[in-house]
Amino acid sequence: MSVDLPKSDASPPTGSGESSPAPSRRTFIATTTAVGGAVVAGGVIGGSVLAGTEEASAAEAPPSTRVSLTVNGTRQTVTVDNRTSLLDLLREHLDLTGSKKGCNAGACGACTVLVDGQRVNSCLTLAVRLEGAEVTTIEGLAKGDRLHPLQQAFIDEDAFQCGYCTPGQILSGVGCIKEGHTGSPEEIREWMSGNICRCGCYVKIVHAVEQTAGK
Fold first, then answer.
1. Contact 67, 80 (CB under 8 A)
2. pTM: predicted TM-score of the whole model, two decimal places
3. What is the pLDDT of residues 145-174, one digit of tens each?
4. For residues 122 and 98, is the Cβ–Cβ distance under 8 A?
5. Could you give the angle at which helices 149-156 and 166-179 cross, rounded to 10 degrees?
């Protein structure tokens, strides 16, 4: 007579020499995703910090130069970015704001000053190229309370309206007279043509230059 033994619901014990069951597909995907994400995140964060540090250390101040020049009779020595224009040197570093920034492209003449007696558009002239130069701006024309003859002529002839272009017009007129280009109104207009007056005071400007040249 045989006896049927009851089946146990418990799983058979695993011996120490047997390997643990293989992980399920779900467990494997979850584990590898978490680990991979941590590695990638660590790489990105670490890389960003490293790149930022490298960029910061590689960043250099823009090249600058120490330049000495005489402005309106006073010796000035300044250190400027090599890209600084004479106009910005005058306005931003020396607080000589009489020279105006109009087009900033050399087309209107509002920034005209004299460099070693010659007319230049200061917006197109690099300051670092003027070592030892003598610069005259509108602030340097008058002698104390005595105006330059062309400044007085502009007043006498009412040769300005808004006045924005006037400093450049006067400096250009001074240069024009020194160059000897005042033989006729037509010649004055030709040699002053680089200075634009948006108020249309050209006739009176020519009269002012002509009057001063005659003296």
1. yes
2. 0.73
3. 999 999 999 999 999 999 999 999 999 999
4. no
5. 120
For tokens 């101040």, name the residue.
61
Q: N- to C-terminal Cα distance for the chain?
A: 151
Tokens of 117: 């007696």
The owner of tokens 């050209």 is 202
How many CB atoms neighbour CB 142 within 10 A?
12
Residues 174, 154 contacting (CB under 8 angstroms): no
User: What b-and-e string marks burial along 164-201, b requiring 16 or more CB atoms within 10 Å of the CB?
Assistant: bbbbbbbbbbbbbbeeebbeeeeebeebbeebbbeeeb
**DSSP label at 123?**
G
Secondary structure letter of residue 14 according to DSSP: P
Paired with 70 in beta bridges are 75, 134
- Encoded tokens for 27: 């467990």
CA 139, chain centre distance (Å) = 25
Alpha-carbon gap, residue 127 to 68, rounded angstroms: 10
Residue 109: exposed, middle, or buried by beta-carbon count in 10 A (0-12, 13-18, 19+)? buried
Residues 131, 135, 139, 141, CA torsion sign: positive
